[in-house]
Amino acid sequence: MAKIAVLGHGVVGSGVVEVVHDNQQSILSRAGEAIEVKRILDLREFPGLSYSDRFTKDFSEIVGDPEISVVAEVMGGVHPAYEFSMQALRAGKSVVTSNKELVAQKGAELLAVAQENGVKYLFEASVGGGIPIIRPLHQCLAANELTEIVGILNGTTNFILTKMFKEGMEFGEALAEAQRLGYAERDPSADIEGGDACRKICILASLAFGKHVYPDQVETQGITKLTAADVAYAGSWGGVIKLIGRAKKREDGKLTATVGPAFIKSDSQLAGIEDVFNGILVRGNAIGDVVFYGRGAGKLPTASAVVADIIDAVKNPGPSKSLHWEDAAENQVADWREDQAAYYICLRAADNERARAAASGLFGEIQALSRDDKPDDEFAFVTVPLPESKILDGAARLAEQGMPALSMIRVLDC
Amino acid sequence: MAKIAVLGHGVVGSGVVEVVHDNQQSILSRAGEAIEVKRILDLREFPGLSYSDRFTKDFSEIVGDPEISVVAEVMGGVHPAYEFSMQALRAGKSVVTSNKELVAQKGAELLAVAQENGVKYLFEASVGGGIPIIRPLHQCLAANELTEIVGILNGTTNFILTKMFKEGMEFGEALAEAQRLGYAERDPSADIEGGDACRKICILASLAFGKHVYPDQVETQGITKLTAADVAYAGSWGGVIKLIGRAKKREDGKLTATVGPAFIKSDSQLAGIEDVFNGILVRGNAIGDVVFYGRGAGKLPTASAVVADIIDAVKNPGPSKSLHWEDAAENQVADWREDQAAYYICLRAADNERARAAASGLFGEIQALSRDDKPDDEFAFVTVPLPESKILDGAARLAEQGMPALSMIRVLDC
């Protein structure tokens, strides 16, 4: 009988307790022994549960308990989750987590401390909820040189974008709907400003390319400025708008990493991923494209990923041989402006023909777009792939000429 | 330096040699040591290769070589692959394979012999080519009680069905196109009769549900009888036809397993999987639906999955703790006729109104379908979900009344 502790009895934590309880038979057969939640750390009171007697407010009762071999940290946030995780690892307990913020900030350090102490630090649940992605990345795709990871990593924004696309809603209206349905929190900024997707692409990029990529190295835009007009232009172009997290290894070995809305064609592999689903496309030199798809969040999918990690830690108590990355190297992340990308640009321009001529002069061949009820003083187009710095310079020039960009969105091939 | 042998220098075998050679750096960093192909078994001659000196026609040179720790069996077919694999395992070498026929026939036995000899028998490449599915199934989804696996498991037939759907081709025409492009072999029967998909669903079902499911326990239909008319009716119903392999655990613990063409709605998760791609949907009680998607075949995707298994066997030389299943239990597979399914049925019926009345009398509520240029003596409809035995009985009754079924195809929700 393996004994574990759960730090935090929120949505995920209570889900972990529930999954461990409901799937005892399958867990026993796969872990080789039964698993019991011995302790739950939470500052709140939870009277009236069948397991109310297992709560504690004192972390030392967990870290000092030699019977507890695995700690599931599902509190979220960097502090005190970081301190608790470090103490547990140093006490020889494996730690499993769904805490993407902590892994994105401190992953390299926590992985190293786990290694030094002969235990595991696992975080399958930190990306893609219940979709297995971390383990396939470091194990099943081991024979590939990975070149690119592109994903729809945040379910809340994908729900909002689906509503905007399918029902023509404006952003605010779709956000309100997401909040009404419980898909967006009352303070939705981590989702809609792109921060959540940014943490996830950091974790995936660190693992895929072997060196820690920090959130402040990722150029991050949210979806708050998107308009129904942008969505309509995307439709007339033959595509949709998705919030895409992307990390790419360049020929020179450097990475670029961005999070932001993107035009993608309707027949691309990620275009059909709707509502709160997530999809992650992994490109390798031998494997080609593989897409992982499923519910990216939610109590039970996330909890089931945490419990799969608990089972792994119970069954294989030693350190992981392949789940690791090094600390960041200097200059490993290149300036995203050096990347090539096509762009959709929507200008305020009273004279459409003058705008077309100016844009063609700056960007070469462009494809003008239309939409229903297009105002006369609006001119939207898509460029060919160009260095992003050239796109930005061009837009600045157009603004100087009295044709400011209302929207600028990358066009991606994925 | 780990030394391995490759049995068979066909498409996959030569791909394995190529991937091991081209990805040395990434393999070294992930396996912890370099990997070298020391021996290649093939009865043919391969002069003029940079590694021509490594070929042998004598398996005893491999099984008797204590330096060789891992054998990649990529010959295909049950014999002599079975005998070679058994000898290698008994000699204390891990065996990795892409051989779905062998795993589907002898998996339980080979897994047991690997266990007894303290080594691994791995077969990630046997299903879904380069898509990681075997390892996620037994590891990442460990915390779930799996209830169902539904997949598009054969790229050749999916290419043919995509051509029939998108270009209105008849089956023979689409098959010829697939052969012209090298997607179908000159003898395509294993693909188009459903045998290949049958082996793959056997492997997935055995792993997911813990007991060996044999090919002859799976009700298997191919796509050779599909017509452009069936495809047109599927379109007018709002869906597509896919060749679906499916295994389901019933409430009473028994399984049902089938392979056959199926109507699925256009907005379902597998409908958008086109051309030679594969997609596998896994349903668990906690995780909900997860779909794995990618290139299901091809030299490099398959070879990369074989090499990932080689890396695993080199890095973790002991027996696997979670990759196993037991031999078949008596009565574990229920009669598929006991299953519930809706059906599409197309009748030869001069009097459409009589056919509608007769069908409604037998099946309850039906939805009549139409298509362009429908002949007057054809009546097609979709039933509600009913026990399959009742569908079969009803069709027999209609035939007795002079209205034989031209086509009968399951309607699935996936």
What structural category characterises the helix and strand content of chain A? alpha/beta
Low-confidence stretches of chain A: none
Q: In CATH terms, what is the architecture of the largest domain in chain A?
A: 2-Layer Sandwich
Strand residue percentage of chain A: 15-25%
Oligomer: homodimer
Total E-strand runs of chain A: 17
What's the Cα radius of gyration of chain A?
23 Å
CATH topology of the largest domain in chain A: Dihydrodipicolinate Reductase, domain 2
- Gross morphology of chain A is elongated
Distance between the termini of chain A: 46 Å
Largest interface: A-B, 55 and 55 residues
- What is the average of the pLDDT values of chain A? 94
Please name the fourth-level CATH homologous superfamily of the largest domain in chain A: Dihydrodipicolinate Reductase, domain 2
Number of domains of chain A: 3
Tally of contiguous helical segments of chain A: 14
> What is the makeup of the main sheet of chain A?
11 strands, mixed
Question: Class of the largest domain in chain A in CATH?
Answer: Alpha Beta
Percent in helix of chain A: 25-40%
Describe the structure.
Two copies of one chain form a homodimer. Chain A is of the alpha/beta class. Helices cover 37% and strands 25% of the residues of chain A. Chain A contains 14 helices and 17 strands. Chain A has helices at 11-22, 24-31, 60-63, 81-90, 100-116, 134-140, 155-167, 171-180, 189-192, 195-209, 228-237, 299-315, 352-363, 388-400; strands at 2-7, 35-41, 55-56, 68-73, 94-97, 121-122, 146-152, 219-220, 239-249, 255-265, 277-284, 288-295, 340-348, 366-369, 378-383, 386-387, 405-411. In chain A, the strands form two sheets. In chain A, strands 7, 8, 9, 10, 11, 12, 13, 14, 15, 16 and 17 form an eleven-stranded mixed beta sheet that branches. Chain A has a six-stranded parallel beta sheet with strand order 3-2-1-4-5-6, with helices on both faces. In chain A, helix 5 runs parallel beside helix 10 and helix 13 packs antiparallel against helix 14 (388-400). The longest helix of chain A is centred in the N-terminal third of the chain and has 17 residues, at 100-116. Chain A is elongated, with a radius of gyration of 23 Å. The interface between A and B is large, with 55 and 55 residues. Strand 12 (288-295) of chain A pairs antiparallel with strand 12 (288-295) of chain B, so a sheet runs across the interface.
